[in-house]
Amino acid sequence: MTKVADVIVIGGGMAGISAAAQISKDASVIVLEAEQSIGYHASGRTAAIFIRNYGNETLRALNALSEPFFKEPEGVSESSLLTPRGQLMFAHEDHLDDLNNYLEGAAGMEVLSPSEAGELVPVLKTDLIVKAAYEKRAQDIDVDRMLQGYQRLLKSRGGQVVLSGQVSGMSYDTGAWTLKTATDTYQAPIAVNAAGAWVDDIARLADVQPVGARPLRRSAAILPRPDIDGFDKWPLFVSASESFYAKPEAGTLMVSPADEDPVEPHDAWADDMILAEGLHRFEEATTIEVTRLEHSWAGLRTFVADRTPVVGFAPDAEGFFWLAGQGGYGIQTAPALSSLTADLITHQNMDKYKTIMPALSPKRLIS
User: In angstroms, rounded to a whole number, what is the distance separating the alpha carbons of residues 334 and 285?
Assistant: First the structure.
C-alpha cells in the first residue's frame, strides 16, 4: 500500500528533521531516513558552536535570523540551546591578512594583543602570535537536544520518521512524486531533498539536474584533558589560516585539522595521515605535546561552488525542493533555513527572506 503525505522529506539530519517539524504545522509530513537513527552522519558528528560572524554575507544573515531561536527554542526545548564558550582567532606573521579579512564586516569582535590571547588560552605560544581577535558571543550548541527536540515537535504535530528508509527510486506523474524504498512506496506532491552528502544522488534518481554538491571530509581527535586550571572555560581557539581549531569538549580537548578533502558520499572515518598533520600544526602553535588520542572521527560537510546553501524549488522539476549545501554551517543555520523552507512550501511570510533568497535559490546553479 502506498503511504501518502503532503510533503516527503528525504534525509533525517538536522536540516531534514528541523524543516519537517516546521512544515508539519501546516501539512502532513513523512521523513525518510536511510540509516537506523536520525542525525547519523554530519549532524551527529559535529561539535557545533554558534558563531555569529562565521561564513559569507548570506550565512551571517542566516546566523542572525537563527540566533533568537537558539536563545528561546519554543517547542523544541524549555531552555536555551546555547552555553557560553567564546571564539579566539589568532594569526602568526604569515597569516595576518587572513585574520584582517575575517574581521572585515564582522561584528562584536575585540582585537587582542598576543599576551591577552595567552590569558584566554594559556597553552598558546604567544611569541608566534602577531594579532588576535575574540568573539565573546560565540556559544556551544547542544546539538543532540536540538535534534531530538525538533523530532518531538514533528511527531507531536502528526509527522512521521521512517528509519532504514533509503530511497531507491523516484518518479513524478500527475502532480505527485512517488518514492520507493526497499519495503514501501510513498507519495506526495512535494519532495524535499535534504539528503546531505547524497543530495545530488537523489536528484539523479529523480531525473533532476544536480547542483554540484561536493562532500568534504572534516576530521577531529579527542585528546586527554590538560592538567591546567580553568581549562573548561577556554574558548574555541582557531588559527587564522584555519590550519587547526580546538576547544574543550565534555572534559576533554577536541582538536580538528580543519581538513576539507573531497570524497564520495560515504560513512566517513578519519584519515590517520591528515589527522597527524593537523595535530602537528596544533603542537607547533601550542605547548601541548600530543602523546595519546582517546578517539577520533570524521564527518562530511557538503558545499556547492559558492559555499552558500541551496534552498528552494528546482527550476527544472515540479514539486522538487532543494535543502542542501549547508557545509559546516548546517546546525547554526537550521532554525532559519527550516522556517524558510516551511514558508516557501506553504507560501507564507516571504517578505523577511526577500533580500537573501537570490543567493540561496537553486536557479543560480542550474543552467
Answer: 33
100-108 own/partner pairs: CB under 8 Å, 24+ apart: 100/131, 102/53, 102/133, 102/240, 103/133, 105/53, 105/57, 105/60, 106/53, 106/133, 106/135, 107/52, 107/53, 108/52, 108/53, 108/135, 108/136, 108/137
Q: Is the pLDDT of residue 348 over 90?
A: no
* C-alpha dihedral, 161 to 167 to 169 to 174, nearest 10°: 20
C-alpha cell at 123: 597553552
Task: State the angle between helix axes of 330-346 and 14-23 in degrees (0 to 180), rounded to the nearest 10.
Answer: 30
Instruction: Please report, rounded to a whole number, the percentage of residues in the chain having pLDDT higher than 70.
Output: 98
Task: Calculate the CA 55 to chain-centre distance.
Answer: 11
**Residues 229-255: tens digit of each pLDDT:** 999 999 999 999 999 999 999 999 999
Statement: residue 44 has pLDDT above 70: no
| pTM as predicted | 0.95
Grid cell of 351 as nine digits:
517578505
Find the farthest-apart pair of alpha carbons in the chain and give their distance in angstroms, rounded: 69
> Which of 306, 266, 332 has its CA nearest to residue 46?
332
Reduce the DSSP state of residue 147 to 3 states and report it: helix
CA nearest to 293, candidates 281, 279, 311: 279
Distance (Å, whole) CA 333 – CA 134: 21
Q: Where exactly are the structural domains of the chain?
A: 2-66+142-213+306-364, 87-136+216-301
Lowest mean pLDDT among 72-86, 201-215, 245-259, 348-362: 348-362
338 CB contacts (<8 Å, ≥6 apart)?
Answer: 15, 18, 19, 21, 22, 150
Average pLDDT estimate for 142-171:
97
The neighbouring-strand residues paired with 312 are 322
Is the separation of the CB atoms in 35 and 163 below 8 Å?
Answer: yes
- Tell me which of 3.40.800.10, 3.50.50.60, 3.20.20.210, 3.40.47.10 is the CATH number of domain 2-66+142-213+306-364: 3.50.50.60
Q: Which fold has domain 87-136+216-301?
A: D-Amino Acid Oxidase; Chain A, domain 2 (3.30.9)
Q: Report the candidate in 134, 151, 158 with the shortest Cα–Cα distance to residue 338.
A: 151
